[in-house]
């Protein structure tokens, strides 16, 4: 498919990416089955059907391999019809072999969502701790100026590592 020139006034067509057909082909290869066949037929009502044929080994009673067909109407487009037929074939093979298809895109979204929740929790804790440190530093400054106003009973001068921790914590919180 070649993109249309911008001067033509027509919008570019989005690229269609098939996810189900490669999964079906991978499953077939994993279980050492012959590759699926993709069919297109017209039924008795003149409806166009897209189909997928899979061949599975016999079940002990029948030693001959069995050919199983999965059909989908191609009224919306042949690519979508083949996807639907392939999805039926995958469902059939799942029942036969008991495998599970994992969607790693979904898994990645869940991982990022969990990281996001954790990052918000860490940021909220950091903000609370920064506010606590700010109160301590304010008290030490005020107690250095007026020893009678000691609220937290903090040392007169804040330790250098506390000031460094506070400033780096504020930098990290502002970065998040």
How would you characterize this protein structure?
The chain starts with 19 loop residues before the first helix and ends with a helix. It is elongated and about 100 Å long. The protein is built from four helices and three strands; from the N terminus they run H-E-E-E-H-H-H. The protein has a three-stranded antiparallel β-sheet. The protein has 176 residues and is an alpha+beta fold. Strand 1 and strand 2 form a beta hairpin. The chain folds into two domains: 83 residues, Double Stranded RNA Binding Domain (2-Layer Sandwich); 72 residues.
Q: Provide the CATH topology of the largest domain.
A: Double Stranded RNA Binding Domain
| Portion in strands | 5-15%
Mean pLDDT: 76
> How many beta-strand runs?
3
Question: Biggest sheet, open or closed, and with what strands and sense?
Answer: 3 strands, antiparallel
Keywords:
disordered N terminus, Double Stranded RNA Binding Domain, single chain, 176 residues, alpha+beta
List the helices and strands and how they pair.
Elements: H1 20-30, E1 37-42, E2 48-56, E3 66-73, H2 78-97, H3 104-145, H4 160-175
Antiparallel strand pairs: 1-2, 2-3
Helix pairs in contact: 1-2, 3-4
Summary, kept brief:
With 176 residues, this protein is an alpha+beta fold. The chain has four helices and three strands. Helix 3 (104-145) packs antiparallel against helix 4 (160-175).
């Amino acid at each position: 498919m070649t993109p249309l020139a911008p001067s033509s006034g027509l919008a570019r067509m989005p690229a269609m990416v098939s996810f189900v057909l490669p999964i079906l082909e991978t499953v077939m290869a994993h279980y050492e089955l012959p590759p699926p066949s993709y069919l297109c037929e017209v039924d008795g009502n003149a409806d166009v059907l897209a189909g997928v044929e899979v061949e599975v080994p016999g079940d002990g009673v029948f030693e001959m391999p069995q050919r199983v067909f999965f059909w989908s109407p191609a009224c919306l487009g042949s690519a979508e019809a083949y996807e639907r037929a392939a999805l039926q074939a995958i469902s059939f093979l799942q029942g036969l072999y008991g495998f599970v298809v994992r969607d790693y895109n979904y898994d990645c979204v869940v991982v990022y969502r969990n990281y996001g929740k954790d990052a918000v929790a860490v940021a909220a804790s950091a903000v609370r701790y920064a506010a606590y440190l700010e109160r301590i530093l304010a008290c030490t400054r005020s107690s250095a100026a007026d020893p009678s106003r000691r609220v937290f009973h903090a040392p007169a001068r804040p330790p250098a590592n506390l000031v460094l921790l506070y400033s780096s914590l504020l930098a990290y919180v502002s970065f998040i």
